[in-house]
Amino acid sequence: MSPILSPYSASISELKKNPSQLIEQANGEAVAILNHNKPTAYLIPAETYEWITSVIEDHELAQIIEQRAAEKTMAQEVSLDEL
User: Fold this and answer.
1) Which of 8, 31, 34, 83 is most deeply packed, by most CB within 10 A?
2) What is the CATH number of the domain that holds 35?
3) Cβ burial 62-77 (10 Å sphere, 16+ → b, else e)
């Protein structure tokens, strides 16, 4: 059985009835949406989603920076006049 990674949970039926109420009751926490008592989705506040997206983008940029730094040793110096 999959673990429920949220202190709040609701069935899909409950979500359909009143999604705004679920969000309000969770006080900014994620809500696990269950189907047959298994988590199928997580409902999170927009601010949380935006923060997660920002963290992922920062991580991806850090990987690019590390990759480019490793490639720097193979770079050949040229002057602007040579370009």
Assistant:
1) 31
2) 3.40.1620
3) eeeeeeeeeeeeeeee
